[in-house]
Amino acid sequence: MKIAIIGGGVAGASVAINLHKLGLEPTLFEKKSALIAGPPACHLHAGGNLYPDINDAQRKQLLKESIEFLRFYPQAIEKRPTLLTVPKHIPIDIYELIQRTKKLAIYYKELIDKDPANRVLGDPQEYFMTFSKDEILSLRGKTPKKAPLTPQEWLIPFANEVDIDRLKFPIILVQEYGINIFRLSAIAELLLQEADVRYETSVVNVKKSGDGFIVISKNNNETKEEQFDFLINAAGFESGIIDDFLGYFRERLVEFKAAYIAKYHSNYPYPEMIFHGIRGTENGMAQFTPYPAGYYQLHGMRKDITLFEDGVAKSEPPSSQPKLSQKYIEFIEKGFDPKLALKRTKKAIWYVGRYIPPFAQAKPTTTPLFGAQQVPGSDLSLRTAEVSFEGDRYVRCEIVKVSSIFTMADAIIGKLIKLQALPSTAQGIRIEGELLDEKSIDSLAQEIAQKRGYPHQMAKLLIPYIGKESLHAAL
Q1: Which one of 152, 202, 402, 452 is separated from 473 by 20 to 30 angstroms, measured CA to CA?
Q2: What angle do CA 87, 401, 443 make, to 5 degrees?
Q3: Phi and psi (nearest 5°) for 127?
Q4: Is pLDDT of 470 > 60?
């Protein structure tokens, strides 16, 4: 069976890797020169801890999917803990968050009981810990560690630098790990070296042809028509364009967002720090994500920092493609406006600096991480979605968070089994990640970062990868 995948983002690339490992030979079309070059992903979202407003079912689903993602891409994961805090002026109940996180710890243990290989976030009893104000104050004045070995050692920079009088207590330390998008891109490219990947190739039309499809693609000035039996639409925020080619309508939203990069000291590693807020208001969440060499990624979930006043577009019948403002399309295709990036980065530094006063001295850069994200349906708060189908031979990849890719892949494999392209034994197979040479990942990831205009150091890990079965002692 001939299978086409349109889009080489995390969804398309991961499906291609899975199908390739199952013995199929999909053709992957990617209009850029590299894979996974779309909107940034910086978290596993192992339990939806950054989203106090989502329900427990979504939180459990994100935890399960994050474990699957970590097992498949272990060398792309930044294994450092995350601090969850609630500022005093934010109407979020910290004790309710703790109770919900307890439920996740129980569910995590259930997943380990079903499959011991799921134990990738440390012991279930240590999935999260809480700390009182007195416990934090007892750490104040201690010297931060170059390589933290305990939860308390991870908390020393927090105790020394954060204005804890602005926060509710207790605070939560959770095993919410990071995703290094540059390493993820490098790993995908290395795993698909032997596959049929068409880089710098745009799909300009798709037509129905019998039970299959004709895909018309363009590379430079060469246009090519090819027949396929099965079509996977993984075109991300442009998925509606492929739907429109085929006359399918699918309600969806597209949101443009940006995170900003600042330079600060690199004397010791920080945990990630989350200061919860109310999305889209002037009191939106503030997020401080550490990278190597003193680079920090900043989110401020308000419309003058990460979000944009006109950054959300909705599909309108008969078209499935939301009409995002042209200026954001140009940002995606040509690069972010440096003046706007500088302005918003300074605002992000100020916003995070309200909670971490020394960070107010950080230096802005003009290299934000940005992109557009699709959300199926009309609920912008949706965090768990995977696929939808039109018949048996056309599937849309509709992931909202990168961790959903393997639930999505399972659904696609189910369809291919029905079409007898795969044996029934392929259903439910969990393909483990293939460990690659660290030097090869590191070299390619740094090359990818530089080509995209980011400091090459951001392609490294704070906590070096030292083996699939190894967890940092702090965890």
Answers
A1: 402
A2: 100
A3: -55, -35
A4: no
Domain ranges of the chain: 1-46+181-250+379-475
DSSP state letters, 445-467: HHHHHHHTTS-GGGGS-SS----
**pLDDT bucket at 472, cuts 50 / 70 / 90:** very low
Give the HSE-up count for residue 96: Cα atoms under 13 Å, Cβ half-sphere: 10
| Phi, psi (rounded to 5 degrees) for 292 | -65, 165
Least reliable range by pLDDT among 50-64, 294-308, 330-344? 50-64
For 164-238, where are the alpha helices, taking DSSP H only? 181-191
Pairing outcome for strands 196-198 and 27-29: parallel
What pLDDT, in 10s, does the model give residues 182-229? 999 999 999 999 999 999 999 999 999 999 999 999 999 999 999 999
CA–chain centroid gap for 145, Å, is 28
Q: Encoding tokens for residue 321?
A: 């493609």
Q: Which helix (H) or strand (E) holds 441?
A: helix 438-451
One-letter amino acid at 189 equals: E
Structure tokens at 462: 């704070």
**Which residues lie closer than 8 Å to 284 by C-beta, 6 or more apart?**
277, 278, 300, 301, 302, 305, 306, 307
Asked whether the predicted pLDDT for residue 469 surpasses 60, the reply is: no
The set of residues, in sequence order, having a beta carbon less than 8 Å from that of 330 and lying 6+ positions away, is: none
Report the C-alpha gap between 348 and 366 in whole angstroms. Answer: 12
Q: Where are the beta strands (DSSP E) in 276-422?
A: 286-290, 295-300, 312-314, 363-364, 369-376, 387-390, 394-397
CA dihedral (392, 243, 8, 345) in degrees, to 10, reads -140
Residue found under tokens 């983002």? 9
- Looking at every residue in the chain, the average pLDDT score rounds to 92
CATH superfamily of 1-46+181-250+379-475: FAD/NAD(P)-binding domain (3.50.50.60)
Backbone phi and psi for residue 291, each to the nearest 5 degrees, phi listed first: -125, 170
Confidence of residue 168 (pLDDT cuts 50, 70, 90): very high
Residues 6+ apart with CB under 8 A from 162: 273, 355, 356
pLDDT at 430: 64
**Would you say 56 and 34 are in contact if contact means Cβ atoms under 8 Å apart?**
no
Contacts of 153 by beta carbon, 8 Å cutoff, 6+ apart: 144, 145, 474
Strands 252-263 and 312-314: antiparallel
333: nearest Cα among 370, 375, 373, 367: 370
Comparing CA positions, the residue from 125, 83, 110, 459 lying closest to residue 287 is 83
Distance of alpha carbon 103 from alpha carbon 152, whole angstroms: 24
